Recover the amino acids of this structure.
């Protein structure tokens, strides 16, 4: 296993992390489907492979995921990093959602109890909240850090402008600052490269990746013919929007590269992410032991410069304004002089 520091912090995380979203049972059967015995095998296998970074959330399987992960890590608790999240709706009351001071305090206490731990290593706000002042959210997170209930803080699924505003406010007020942004990122979903990646790189916020296989699409098990099969996961939880036909064109190249290495499409897709300098850790979710075992092999896969260039060209997102304007109007004379 390879390791890296998370952002500008001293927190060392495995380059491949384990996502426990599949643990438990709930209202999305195609996602929440891992029982206790299988979960134990998955966690043990992850630990044996050198993974020290485990991710969950209070909203996963109505909190079941947190309970199971806390129990399964057991005596390994102090050797591992537990990340959990808050902000999604966890009850019917108006106050049981969002990033208000009340909900964050309540959610943190509930997560501590479910995880059976005295502290949370990385506490992540799961989404932005347009109904709560940013200052209120950041002050509440800072207070939770000062109380010793959480060690580090991060955000997930925030736009770059909001994260930048938050980091600036945290630094100005001497509050605990975000060290992590957990974002969706894959070969067929490179939107974060427009603004999020430049912001994180310049501010020292480390990226962790969810959805590296785009909900399983990049595993290679789906074809143009079986995509709509009612028994597959994408039929029950097709959450990530992308052009499916373009996705299959990309997948054809991924499979060709995989064949050259005696690898799988999933391994190539994950290895590509691990090769991105701005990525600290890639979260692997699994509902089968063989699936986790296969995906972990991505840590050993080294793609050639030519393969990386081919994937880069094939999957590069179209630039957005004003990014394309800035690139077009960059002064070539100055650029040449500086190189």
């Amino acid at each position: 296993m390879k390791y890296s520091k998370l952002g500008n912090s001293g927190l060392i995380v495995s380059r491949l992390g384990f996502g426990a979203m599949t643990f438990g049972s709930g209202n999305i059967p195609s996602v929440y489907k891992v029982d206790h015995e299988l979960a134990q095998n998955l966690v043990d296998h992850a630990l044996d492979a050198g993974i020290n970074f485990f991710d969950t959330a209070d909203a996963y399987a109505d909190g079941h995921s947190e309970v199971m992960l806390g129990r399964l890590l057991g005596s390994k608790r102090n050797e591992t990093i537990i990340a959990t999240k808050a902000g999604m709706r966890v009850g019917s009351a108006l106050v049981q959602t969002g990033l208000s001071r009340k909900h964050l305090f309540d959610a943190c206490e509930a997560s501590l109890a479910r995880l059976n731990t005295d502290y949370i290593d990385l506490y992540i706000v799961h989404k932005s909240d347009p109904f709560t002042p940013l200052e209120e959210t950041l002050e509440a997170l800072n207070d939770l850090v000062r109380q010793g209930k959480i060690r580090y803080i991060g955000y997930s699924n925030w736009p770059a402008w909001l994260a930048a505003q938050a980091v600036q406010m945290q630094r100005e007020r001497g509050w605990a600052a975000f060290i992590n942004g957990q974002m969706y990122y894959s070969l067929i979903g490179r939107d974060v490269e427009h603004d999020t990646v430049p912001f994180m790189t310049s501010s020292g916020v480390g990226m962790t990746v969810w959805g590296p296989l785009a909900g399983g699409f990049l595993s290679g098990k789906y074809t143009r013919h079986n995509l709509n099969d009612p028994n597959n996961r994408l039929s029950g939880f097709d959450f990530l929007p992308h052009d499916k036909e373009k996705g299959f064109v990309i997948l054809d190249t991924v499979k060709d590269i995989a064949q050259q290495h005696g690898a799988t499409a999933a391994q190539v897709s994950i290895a590509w992410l691990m090769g991105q300098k701005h990525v600290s850790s890639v979260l692997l979710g699994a509902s089968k032991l063989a699936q986790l075992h296969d995906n972990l092999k991505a840590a050993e896969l080294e793609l050639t410069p030519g393969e990386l260039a081919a994937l880069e060209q094939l999957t590069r997102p179209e630039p957005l304004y004003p990014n394309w304007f800035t690139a077009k109007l960059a002064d070539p004379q100055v650029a040449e002089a500086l190189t």
Observations:
- The first strand starts at residue 3 and ends at 5.
- The chain has one domain: 3-338.
- DSSP finds 13 helices and ten strands in the chain.
